[in-house]
From TrEMBL:
Chief place of localization: membrane
GO BP terms: electron transport chain
GO MF annotations, alphabetized: cytochrome-c oxidase activity
Keywords: Cell membrane, Membrane, Translocase, Transmembrane, Transmembrane helix
InterPro entries assigned: Cyt_c_oxidase_su4_actinobac
Catalytic activity line of the entry: 4 Fe(II)-[cytochrome c] + O2 + 8 H(+)(in) = 4 Fe(III)-[cytochrome c] + 2 H2O + 4 H(+)(out)
Enzyme class: translocase
EC number: 7.1.1.9
Subcellular location: Cell membrane
Protein name (Swiss-Prot/TrEMBL): Cytochrome c oxidase polypeptide 4
Keyword DNA damage attached: no
Organism for this UniProt entry: Kytococcus aerolatus
Length: 134
């Protein structure tokens, strides 16, 4: 994590310079961009600080930081994924209808919400019926 911490701390002055250049370039009359860049600097510093504190609490060297580390050192349990599940497809299509409904009209948004509820419920309760019943 020390590499990530250094990366964030070393790039912080560049983002501060971008913030100041943008502010002077617009004459500080355009508040949205200046606020966005200023908050980006604050968030960037928060991430750098968090990574630094976390790096100090870790004992030893992470496999990612070890020059001679192997990929199998970080392998672990990533969770259980549903085999041959169609629900993620319907969930993504429902999300597409919802987001399209925001741009097109509220009637389409409501239809997308119904689709979204059905897809989420179907995906959550997938293992309570069918061939993969638990």
């Amino acid at each position: 994590m020390k590499v990530e911490t250094k990366l964030f701390w070393y790039l912080t002055p560049a983002y501060v310079i971008f913030f100041l250049l943008y502010g002077f370039w617009t004459g500080w009359n355009e508040p949205v961009g200046a606020i966005a860049l200023g908050l980006s600097v604050v968030f960037w510093v928060m991430i750098a600080w968090y990574l630094g504190v976390t790096a100090k609490t870790i004992d030893g060297i992470r496999p990612e930081d070890d020059r001679f580390g192997h990929q199998d050192q970080v392998a672990g349990h990533y969770g259980h994924f549903a085999p041959y599940s169609w629900w993620p497809l319907w969930l993504s299509l429902a999300c597409a209808v919802v987001f399209t409904g925001v741009a097109v009209g509220w009637w389409m948004f409501v239809i997308g919400l119904f689709m979204l509820v059905i897809a989420v419920v179907g995906w959550v309760y997938e293992y309570y019926s069918g061939p993969h019943h638990v």
